[in-house]
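Hey, weird one. I pasted the Two component transcriptional regulator, LuxR family sequence into the form twice and got a warning about non-standard characters only the second time. First submission, copied straight from the form history:
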Amino acid sequence: MDERDDEPRNPAAGGEAEDKDVDAPVGVYIVDDHALFRTGVRAELASFEERVRVLGEAGSVAEAVAGIEHLRPAVVLLDVHMPDGGGAEVLRRVRERGVAAVFLALSVSDAAEDVITVIRGGARGYVTKTISGRELADAIRRVAAGDAVFSPRLAGFVLDAFSQGPDSARVSDPELDQLTRRERDVLRLLARGYSYREIGSELFISVKTVETHVSSVLRKTQLSNRYELSKWASDRRLV
């Protein structure tokens, strides 16, 4: 008998298809550069341990790739924006190593270009950080089973982009292009009516930093106030 037959198996890890138990909890690895957010996700998913189990977490691209390769989770919850390359870089490096894992993007951003970038990189779904713990556990189980998971609005971005061809995911907008990703995140929340304090809490930045980003956006767009910014963002489908 092969010695490997006596080795204990981890039902929460990815593994081969014949080893999977549909009733076993799905092994999850969390990738996000904000430690506080990772702690929050762990706490939310802890209520659903019979369905999902957090195997580990990482706050950088290099740490994420090493952890995924070592732990072989079934599903990776992947932040889109990180200082050292973001979700797209994690996807690229993990694919290069031939590691089989399903990626579910979990981001504050619901911008079309962010959604399309990670889906083209190989992610199986994309949900935003407004999702509840129960909904997130359901999304994890679904992508692990082979489903693609998006909110209706985000699914529309993907359908539009892929139905119109590989070059249609993003139409150039010089005014929008001059904004940084973080400025777009702040603008999106501002246009939805969030206060500076609420924006800071959502993006894990200080109120002072929010004010700095808003001032920069106003200067770059040559607009005067948040009401003009809201209309400007709505016209570009950022809201």
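That's the output from the first submission. The warning seems to come from a hidden character in my clipboard, not from the data itself. The chain has two domains: 3-163, 174-235.
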